[in-house]
Design brief:
With 478 residues, this protein is mainly alpha-helical. The chain contains 20 helices and 6 strands. GO terms for molecular function: potassium channel regulator activity; voltage-gated potassium channel activity.
């Protein structure tokens, strides 16, 4: 039996509660003696109602607990004893702390059962609860997306069904084997296009045009045209099938896709029509500037690489650490460049002509690059360089661990959420099939399915998935 201090408090309603009033509760097999004057501090809770329910008879008692032994005077509750250890603290200390290892959502359900207001939770526990709710919302969103993919809206028109099929075909490689093949082909086109762009700059592979200028080989130009044609068709199909055209156009990755194909058509237009509107030299300069923008297509690899996407999200979550890194480096660059300029002025062949010019030396020194184009020649200058090098190493090393930690946490979290979404779907399908077999009526299993879901996994039950539309559609998709 748990040992709790026997404390005495006056009833908050002003009534005279005897100090001898006590009740014995059995929480999941663990007995606990509680005192009425303590429990009546919060009269709206289940335990306080249990103290004052003797006049109501057995009906009132069994409405509050799962079982009652009149011989021992013991009330039985089929609840988590570990969570109850935290719940009982509210009567003695006025606040509740969740123990490590208890699911926040499950603990919130326990508080609801014992009729304890969530405001008694400490702030640290509330933050854990908010984080858990966000995870459940994300899992629910993933489950709904999967259910939407299994079967579309039955009232949708033929064009809407075709549009959704095309969207899955172009955007979701995991939906089918042909969609996976298309994703692989697109991936190879990106690699081929990037290789051709690099090979086109090799002088041995270039030819001279009529004006004597070096241009890309026609074969490489043809391969480039074929790749751009594939990217264009892919972009147009994805735009046509997109359920939200504005969101599609403003998405970062879709902007990258547009920038990857736009320079080809602009340079083609300038080459064929620009000669009539401007000088040939200006046209060639504009075309060269646009061709440089072809490097944007390498970012298309992020669409087909979950690792690159995870790295991008991890960097977004590490803005604070990256900001600290840049601040450390900025302060060090300013200080050591000013010191280097001052110390090197006494040397007749100094390479430090000004403080702004010394910034370059400080950058390549603190980042341990060390090109050697600018270097100190005095003893004090070399000491300053050594100190700046050591400070640069420390400044770069300090934020690295938090950034790596954010990447690992986010990557592991995505894997856990993906597994949880699949687990939720399996449970929904299992209980939907069980309810269908028992009733023989798939259309009337909504209440049974919701009840089975709650009983099967109380700590992972997602209220956002209680919509009967998703459950009945899951049954029809089997």
């Amino acid at each position: 039996m748990w040992g709790m201090p026997k404390m005495r408090y006056a009833d908050c309603n002003g009534s005279e509660t005897s100090e001898e009033t006590e009740i014995i509760v059995n929480i999941g097999g663990v007995r606990q003696v509680l005192y009425g004057d303590v429990l009546n501090r919060y009269p709206g809770t289940r335990l306080a109602e249990l103290v004052n329910c003797s006049s109501g008879g057995y009906d009132a008692i069994f409405s509050l607990c799962d079982d009652y032994d009149p011989g021992k005077g013991e009330f039985y509750f089929d609840r988590d004893p570990d969570a109850f250890k935290c719940i009982i603290d509210v009567y003695y200390f006025g606040e509740i702390h969740m123990k490590k290892g208890i699911c926040p959502i499950c603990f919130l359900n326990e508080m609801e059962f014992w009729k304890i207001d969530p405001s008694f939770l400490d702030e640290c526990c509330k933050s854990n609860l908010s984080e858990k709710r966000e995870e459940l919302e994300e899992i629910a969103g993933r489950v709904k997306l999967i259910l939407d993919d299994l079967e579309g809206d039955p009232s949708a028109t033929r064009w809407q069904k075709c549009q959704k099929f095309l969207w899955k075909f172009m955007e979701k490689p995991e939906s089918s084997l042909p969609a996976r093949v298309i994703a692989i082909v697109s991936f190879f086109f990106i690699l081929i296009s990037s290789v051709v762009m690099c090979m086109g700059t090799i002088p041995d592979l270039q030819i001279e045009d009529a004006e004597g200028n070096h241009v890309e080989h026609p074969t490489l130009d043809s391969i480039e045209t074929a790749c751009i044609g594939w990217f264009t068709i892919e972009y147009i199909l994805r735009l046509i099938s997109s359920p939200n055209k504005l969101h599609f156009a403003l998405s970062f990755m879709n902007i990258v896709d547009f920038l990857a194909i736009m320079p080809f058509y602009v340079s083609l237009t300038l080459t064929h029509l620009g000669n009539k509107m401007m000088e040939l030299t200006n046209v060639q300069q504009a075309v060269q500037a646009l061709r440089i923008m072809r490097i944007a297509r390498i970012f298309k690899l992020a669409r087909h690489s979950s690792g690159l996407q995870t790295l991008t999200y991890a960097l977004k979550r590490s803005f604070k650490e990256l900001g600290l890194l840049l601040m450390y480096l900025a302060v060090g660059i300013f200080v050591f460049s000013a010191l280097g300029y001052t110390m090197e002025q006494s040397h007749p062949e100094t390479l430090f002509k000004s403080i702004p010019q010394s910034f370059w030396w400080a950058i390549i020194t603190m980042t341990t690059v060390g090109y050697g184009d600018i270097y100190p020649k005095t003893t004090l200058g070399r000491c300053n360089a050594a100190i700046s090098f050591l400070c640069g190493v420390i400044a770069i090393a300090l934020p690295i661990h938090p950034i790596i930690n954010n990447f690992v946490i986010y990557y592991n979290k995505q894997r856990v959420l993906e597994t949880a979404a699949k687990h939720e779907l399996d449970l929904m399908e299992l209980h939907a099939g069980k309810a269908t077999r028992e009733t023989g009526k798939p259309s009337s299993t909504t209440a049974a399915l919701e009840s089975n879901l709650k009983m099967s996994h109380s700590d992972t039950y997602i209220p956002l998935l209680s919509d009967s539309n998703y459950r009945t559609r899951l049954q029809s998709c089997k």
